[in-house]
Amino acid sequence: MTLQQLKYAEAIDRYRSFAAAAEALDVTQPTLSAMVSKLEEELDVRLFDRTSRKVTTSLIGEKIIQQARKTLMEADRIKEMVADIKGGLTGEFHFAVGPSIAPYILPDFIRNYMKDYPDVQLSVEEMRPEAMIKALRDSDIDAGIASTGHICAGLYEIPLYTERFFVYLSESCQRKLPVFNPAELEHEHLWVMKEVQCLRESAFSFCKGRIGRRHVYEAGNIDTLIRIVDTNGGYTIIPEMHLPMLTPQQRSNVRNIEGDHLSLRKVSIYIREDYVRERMLNTIPDTMKKFMPSDMLERTLLRNGIRL
Amino acid sequence: MTLQQLKYAEAIDRYRSFAAAAEALDVTQPTLSAMVSKLEEELDVRLFDRTSRKVTTSLIGEKIIQQARKTLMEADRIKEMVADIKGGLTGEFHFAVGPSIAPYILPDFIRNYMKDYPDVQLSVEEMRPEAMIKALRDSDIDAGIASTGHICAGLYEIPLYTERFFVYLSESCQRKLPVFNPAELEHEHLWVMKEVQCLRESAFSFCKGRIGRRHVYEAGNIDTLIRIVDTNGGYTIIPEMHLPMLTPQQRSNVRNIEGDHLSLRKVSIYIREDYVRERMLNTIPDTMKKFMPSDMLERTLLRNGIRL
DNA sequence: TCATATCTATAGTTTTTATCTATGCAAAGA
DNA sequence: TCTTTGCATAGATAAAAACTATAGATATGA
Asked: A155 with A298, same domain?
């Protein structure tokens, strides 16, 4: 059993034709026939049914080729590793950022990244957490930045930074309290973002059980939310990185949250557990360092070769 | 890059010597030299430092060989799969059972298994959940039977059966209640097993928050626990499968628990997510069917090819 | 139904690669 | 310095992978 034989079988399964696979692999069709026969002989299993004019993969063949794909993938990662370790930082790098984080870091991030790593073909997209997990599992993206505290099977979390939450009070409800205590505003409306599960979950954590369903309304983004609060009264929760985006007038409506150990969210990089391009991965925290306040950044050393 | 080259490099790393690895692999030393040189040339990376008299693996080499091991493992699984699918049910099969389950199923299980699959070299051991998870991850065992409801990264859970919990009341505290309600016995002692985390966690779930720490004492196994309860008063929680082991006298001290949807525990088979010997795996539920009450067994169809 | 187009399998040959034996060369230890 | 130890190299040989040419099988269309 050789990697080549597995590659050949994989291609035949994909193209459902010896001739087409042969062309794609740039060998002749008899070579494929011979090599696959040899593999079948060694395993003593018929991988393909060649009766009639079309090739179909046998039931057992399906399973074996699925495993062959895994094997080939692991083998490919050896080359990826070498490229990552040896090569200059070039090639493609795809990552995704959660919607409650993207607006605050992406503008600076992209500017700094393109300056420092001009040879990397960067591709960034906004992605909701569930889609991000799927994309990571399927290797559609190399890394994701999100704040879901869940530990996901098969994924690895690398803490990036921690930020505080603040309360934004409506203009009308101007109590001149220095800090916010949920109990004091129990009768008011809490407005939270829709579609931003990671933010919402963290945001709820410090007032768990205190807020009934009827006090909660949802909006699409934080700017809208702030306008809703200004117009309708009540309050909302905003992450620390949103503060620079407020007008001085709005800034005066912001309050600290009492018991601030509960009002934090951790933002992390997520990668597949077996991701191998460590140097490339490090370009993310290295770029973050360029524009993020250093007191927010994590300083933990995690996993072989991944520093921060 | 061929599987053979990876195998050779892996062996050299393991034996830290070309000559020793060559002997182990049953080839000559020059063959190894040539093949590894070729691999190094293709990857354009020096895997081993041959300066001085001993061979050391380079830093990059370490990483690459780690990945090579993964690749070789995936390739091996192809052969495992074939053996599992094609071969009669032979070979070794190692599994572990949690301590709160083993006494109830193992005697019948082993008898039935050895009768139905005489060619399988069965090895069963009792193992606590944490050790089981580690053993599964390290491939020390093929499967584990336990009742931790946790979803563990990299592991796959296949429900096996569900059993109820009952309350065993002390002889002295004979209230002739038909069902048990935690509130009614709040002042009594609850005795629970030590070391049997999975059982304890499930057992606690239906009286969460109700039981203070001082009402809890721990014992090593359920028989002891029952004697403690008989002698000292109070009550304990026993799984359904323990009932046949009670004397008729003891049987009369058993009560149903009120709201029985909370007093269930699910017992499952755990395997590595990428476990490939499906036919072998199916011998577990197939054997269970032989002696377990059919109403306790799960009937769910899970994952390709694994039925129940 | 017979010819034809479209597949894969097989035969025979050539090229490439893996392995062997024999030997060289470098470094550590006596 | 001489020997031992251990990997590298050279050259020969056997194994295997790849090619060209062609046979054989099976649907499709006249």
From this structure: yes
C-alpha–C-alpha distance, residues B282 and A168, integer Å: 58
Tokens of A196: 């931003």
- pLDDT tens for B90-112 read 889 999 998 888 888 999 999 99
C-alpha distance from A2 to closest chain B C-alpha (Å) = 6
The size of the A-B interface in CB pairs under 8 A is 95
Alpha helix segments (H runs only) across chain A: 3-15, 18-25, 29-43, 59-86, 102-116, 129-137, 197-205, 222-232, 248-251, 278-291
State pLDDT tens for residues B284-293.
Answer: 999 998 888 8
Tell if B33 CB is < 7 Å from nucleic strand D. yes
The CATH number of residue A67's host domain is 1.10.10.10
State the greatest distance between any 2 C-alpha atoms of chain A, in Å, as a whole number: 84
What integer is the mean pLDDT of B272-285? Answer: 90
Average pLDDT taken over every residue of chain B: 80
Q: Are A170 and A275 in a shared domain? A: yes
Chain B, residues 83-142, CB within 8 A of chain A, namely: 85-86
Rounded Cα distance between A41 and A28, Å, is 20
Q: Which residues of B touch A68 (CB under 8 A)?
A: 78
Q: Which residues of B touch A44 (CB under 8 A)?
A: 82, 86
Contact B275, B281 (CB under 8 A): yes
Residue, of B201 and B131, whose pLDDT is higher:
B131
pLDDT at A218 over 70: no
* Residue A300 domain boundaries: 88-308
A159 and A175 part of one domain: yes
Same domain? B109 vs B62: no
Q: Give the C-alpha distances (Å, rounded to integers) separating B223 from A94, B168, B231, B277.
A: 58, 11, 12, 37
Residue A103 CA and nucleotide C9 C1' are separated, in Å, by 61
The pLDDT of residue A214 is above 50: no
Amino acid at B230: D
Residue in this structure with the two tokens 């606590």, named with its chain if needed: B128
Number of domains in chain B: 2
* Residue A30 CB in 7 A reach of strand D: yes
Which has the closest alpha carbon to B143: B85, B92, B219?
B92
Mean pLDDT within A142-165: 83
Q: Which residue of A has its CA nearest to B4?
A: A2
Nearest Cα residue to B117 out of B88, B95, B137: B88
**A87 CB neighbours strand C below 7 A:** no
Asked if B35 and B114 sit in the same domain, the reply is: no
- Tokens 């009639």, residue? A52
A64–B contact, CB cutoff 8 A: yes
For residue B176, give both structure tokens. Answer: 């002739």
* Rounded-to-integer distance, Cα A103 and Cα A222, Å: 10
Q: Using the predicted structure, report yes or no on whether residue B301 has a pLDDT greater than 50.
A: no
Tens of pLDDT, residue by residue over A96-140, are 998 888 888 999 999 999 999 999 999 999 998 889 999 999 999
Contact B292, B171 (CB under 8 A): no
Position B217 scores a pLDDT of 61
Domain termination residue (choose one: A83, A102, A122): A83
Q: Which of B41, B58, B82, B277 to mutate to test the interface with A (most CBs of A within 10 A)?
A: B82
Q: Nearest C-alpha of chain B: how many angstroms from A98?
A: 23
